Amino acid sequence: MIPEIRRCPRCGKPYTDYPAISRRDNKTEICPECGTAEAFEDYFGISYSGDAYWSDNVDESMLSESPAKSNGIYSLKNGWLKQPERDNIPDEPDLEPELGNWLEDAFHCNTVETIDEFIDNLYKLRQESLIAEGEYGKGNLIFKELRNRGILQGLKDKKVQLENQEMSLTEEKELTEAEQVDSWWADRKNKICEYYHTLMESTALPGEYDRNNPYLDQRALAQTANKFGYGKDMIKSVLKGER
User: Fold this and answer.
1) One-character DSSP codes across 31-88
2) pLDDT of 83
3) Do residue 55 and residue 105 come from a single domain?
């Protein structure tokens, strides 16, 4: 099926994609690229310096003064100022070997960085082709071929998958490090308790000191704190099971 060809009243280039609606009057159909351009103009506060192309502002002077070759201009007040004419579809250019090179590069995109670079370059290729050659330029057709084959969406999905894997590995690493710290501190507490109990048992009468119900001796606390490099309050907390 031969696609319907329209000519954008803003840029004057032919296009076959679904049209965008101009933000200037919410009525005029323009090409998707110009629709994006309008969005950028509004977002960044950029003033449009060309001729008015939206329907409410069109007049007869636009037909001769505008540098864009519009395929059709319609005024809500006066009807058709220029009847649209069907464009002839040019012969499709040979996309090889460029398409093969792009497919080869896509196959080797195995990191988030290489995927981002590939997609950025592909969109740049399309934009430059549209400006220089129009809808049927080789760069735009390569872009569409890769998109239609699912290469573009596949790379975007692969990027999400890689980012999720990287996040999982980071979380796993953080969990492992936390477990290592917990294990080290548990061993450290056992050594503190063992040292204190040994000190107390060495000075107490047989059976006088109960490890399960230890009492605090200031001299033993001071020796233990000095041995492990902590304050006496920390040693007390460890012995009471508070740390």
Assistant:
1) -HHHHHHHHHHHHHTPPP-S---SGGG--THHHHH-SS--S-EEETTTEEEE---PPP
2) 57
3) no
- pLDDT tens digit string along 79-88? 555 555 555 5
Q: Each residue of 124-170: pLDDT tens digit?
A: 998 888 888 877 888 989 998 998 888 989 999 999 999 888 887 77
Give the integer Cα–Cα distance in Å for 92 and 90.
6
| Same structural domain, 170 and 222 | yes
Domain holding 102, by residue range, is: 98-149
**The pair of three-digit structure tokens given for residue 5, joined into one six-digit string:** 């060809």
pLDDT at position 220 over 70: yes
Query: Is residue 154 domain-resident?
Result: no
Among 82, 111, 140, residue at a domain's last position: 82
Global confidence as pTM: 0.40
Element (H, E) at 74: strand 73-75
β-pair type (20-21, 14-15): unpaired
Write the burial class of residue 195 (CB in 10 Å: 0-12 exposed, 13-18 middle, 19+ buried): middle
Query: What's the confidence (pLDDT) of residue 3?
Result: 62
The last residue of one of the domains, among 82, 116, 137, is 82
| 138 located within any domain | yes
First to last CA, the chain: 76
Distance CA 45, CA 43 (A): 6
Integer Cα distance of 68 and 30 in angstroms = 13
